[in-house]
Amino acid sequence: MLIDFHTHTSASDGELLPAALMARAVNRDVRALAITDHDTLEGLKSAASNVPKSLQLVSGVELSCLWGGVNIHIVGLGFDMTAPAMTALVARQGAAREQRAHKIAQRLEQAGFQGAYDGVVALASGAELGRPHFARWLVKQGFVDSETRAFDRYLGRGKLGDVKTFWPALSDVVAELTSAGGVAILAHPLHYSMTRMKLRALCTDFAEAGGSAIEIASGRQTQDEIAKLTRLALDFGLHASVGSDFHRPWQHGPDLGVSTTLARGVPGVWEIVL
Ligand code: MN
Ligand code: MN
Ligand code: MN
What we know:
Strand order of the largest sheet: 4-5-6-7-8
Order of helices and strands: EHEHEEEHHHHHEHEHEEH
Radius of gyration: 18 Å
Shape: globular
Bound molecules: manganese (II) ion
Number of strands: 9
Oligomer: single chain
Number of helices: 10
């Protein structure tokens, strides 16, 4: 069975409107889809009113938080999107994201890129602001020739636009998400460039905080990486989740739909939320 538990729409830094994302999922024979925009439920809410018959939509969100000074992403699934605890959590995440966007803009403006904040707001057209919007703005203004270059020079880890101070602690985010009825999943565990020891410490704390699963495939893992992540799930008693982390149709990037058969010997998070 093909499912996809990690996708983005134009409500955050994805390109497709929620309806177009769902239509694409149906075309690709995806049975269950979670829209997991960064720190907002707006895409999910607009999708929920018009779900195609052959598709099961699972409530989702991707929440930013901090652990040991590292910006970690937690995918939340299966919550009641109208639960007050969930609304409060997402509102706080959105406020942190907004403060962070101001700080990034301020730093860029101090570095000589005038009008960064207004420019990014105009370009994002109502979406939750993230670094990809700043990257697009820097390209559009002709300051850099590609979004990759924008991250390498100004926005990536350790650069001036890498602002982390506003994110809450991982343990708080996981606790609030689970108290709102959601399932917490550690997103793309190999993207944090951690040593094996540190990644295991993260999994320990994540499981202790109430986390349920880790992503064993988030778009373009090799067999080796999937095996490593499966091992990690088994060692910490966590379920497996799969998702493409789809942001836009792109020939070099993953498209919608990941096979649940990738989770060999580990219970799938779909057994909880479907
Ligand atoms: Mn993103
Ligand atoms: Mn992420
Ligand atoms: Mn993502």
